[in-house]
Amino acid sequence: MKRIASALAVALLATPAAWAADVQYKLLVLAIPNKYHYEYIPIARESLEKLAKLHAFDFTYTNKPEAFDGDLKQYAAVVFLNTPGEELNPAQRAKFEAYMRDGGNAVVVHRAAITPPNGWVWYEKLVGRSFKTHPMLQTGAVDVVDKTFPATFGIPPRWIWSDEWYETTNPYKVAIHPVLNIDESSYDVTKIWPGQVSTGMGRDHPVSWYHTVEKGRVFVTLLGHNGDMYRDPQYLAHLMGGIWWAATGRGQQR
């Protein structure tokens, strides 16, 4: 009987309810399909599910902006996954701004950094940079700028990566802390479609950064164009490091 009782106790510890008790935090992940980004949605969800089990967090994964009508305080961070804030209506935008003022946090991934100029200036400032253009997707060399930040822990100091190297501007003079920089000598900054112009940004070309907005933390990565990227262990380590920091404020080496 003692053996049966012990086995039952072990089984109870392994139940989903018991595991859920160990959840450290919860995320809201907004992933809405658009013209250029849709195939990533099921892949990213599957990868996040694996990360959630491995790192003991929970998340709501949705393509419905109506999720912002509910209680955002339950979420340690909101993740805009290839989905810019322009998808939110005025009331939802106001709720998200209030969430950040109350100490909420945000993660902005790739396409989510692109929003129409002057459409929602507060969100542009939250991103920290405004989108200008990007050349064709190419392989480049990404350099770690801040090796003390968690989003760099799982990648090499000089990382071979293929992506759309967004060029950005800083019209609102927002101060950011760069995490990764793309070496423009490693790809052709002028390779773009007919009728468009890409000139590069020079030596200071961040592709990932963090900063604070209102009372909250914001992590931004411009990487993540193709669906298969959301299966790549190094990219997922980069993304997970940023999520962990945004949700908890932990992990930076001092």
Number of helices: 6
In helices, the fraction of residues equals 25-40%
> What is the overall shape?
globular
**Proportion of strand residues:** 15-25%
The count of DSSP E runs of length 2 or more, i.e. the number of strands, is: 11
What ranges have pLDDT less than 50 throughout 5 or more consecutive residues?
1-19
Radius of gyration: 19 Å
SSE string, helices as H and strands as E: HHEHEEHEHEEEEEEEH
Strand numbers in spatial order across the main sheet? 2-1-3-4-11-10-9-6-7
Q: What is the structural class?
A: alpha/beta
Largest sheet: 9 strands, mixed
Give the N-terminus to C-terminus distance in angstroms.
52 Å
Mean pLDDT: 91
Condensed summary:
This protein has 254 residues and is of the alpha/beta class.
